[in-house]
Fold this sequence. Notes:
Number of domains: 2
Distance between the termini: 11 Å
CATH architecture of the largest domain: 3-Layer(aba) Sandwich
Structural class: alpha/beta
CATH class of the largest domain: Alpha Beta
Strand order of the largest sheet: 3-2-1-4-5-6-7
Amino acid sequence: MKERVYISCGGTGGHFFPGLSLARELKRRKADVRLLLSGVNSLPQSRQAAEYGIDAAVLPRMPSPGKNPLRILQFLWGLAGGFIRCFFLFLFRRPDHIILMGSFASAPAAVAAWGLRVPIYLHDGNARIGKANRFLSRIAECMGTAFPAVNGECCYCELFCIGMPLRPELEAARNIPKKRAVGGLNRLYGSKLRPELYTILIFGGSQGAATINSVLPPALKSLGAGRFQVIHLTGKGKLEETARLYEDAGFPLLLLESSNRMDFCLGSADLVFSRSGGSAVAELLLFGKNAVLIPYPYAAEDHQTDNARFCVESRSAEMVSDGEFTVEKACEIIQRHLDDPSIGAIRQMAAQLVASPLAAAAFLDRIAGTGAGK
């Protein structure tokens, strides 16, 4: 009989994509797996899951409660509706266990599973365990984290660091040669990047990052041409305004809103400027990239700083606060790396030492060892 598993992965990409990676690994293992989604992105995410033959149930939207009375009411309404939907899903299609990927969107599935005595397993994609997972750890069997937890004492269940579940395509391409990666970008986008040039990759996540987009173009232009080339992913809706900042740039430039071939982008890069969300950091470590991390200053409980600090302490990256990341600071960093390539070589080795390849399989093996599905 097939193992039956539900995965609740909220509505944001930071929860959805690791959850989808786990679902794909479960499907590869012939399990009967289904996603539980909630939030404004649920419908497009359910279509993405369907591309891999994975079903998804869309639950009522449930924003984090906060202190606003209206948001609290919306949260309670979503919690009640989501609980009822999950309760009947689990009652008539009872899972062997469920996996929760964090956020308050997991609460309905957690309450329904707890009421039906279904084993609960947690995963947190950041170095700081989030509020929802801290609360849900009271009823969970165990929790895996992407990075060593800085607040592990707040967890009430067994806790272990296992890494971030990443897309199989990225796992398979982590050792892609730079020449092949650059050639792939040129074929896809008609760019004229050169594999022998020092390559700087810039990205700030799906929505982009205002500071990164505004600081780096003038900094790069001030350094002149001939020594480097640039790949810049601006984020949705940020392409035109960023393109204006690159006008008259004398270096090869590939400017895109986003790319679904991060294997080519990461494989091409010698230096990366990025925010420090959990998935971004895990991908940088997997590919052994020399990174400059600029944590998003408004992330919940400043968790991006904790992620970046893990990289700094492992000597795989440096961190600059959003407020300190100026044109002058960016110029100093880039010039230092251009003048001393050994910095990147050392960081590449350090990143590979702390990366967690095949984390999806490792996490599922670990929870299976606790009795899941037996």
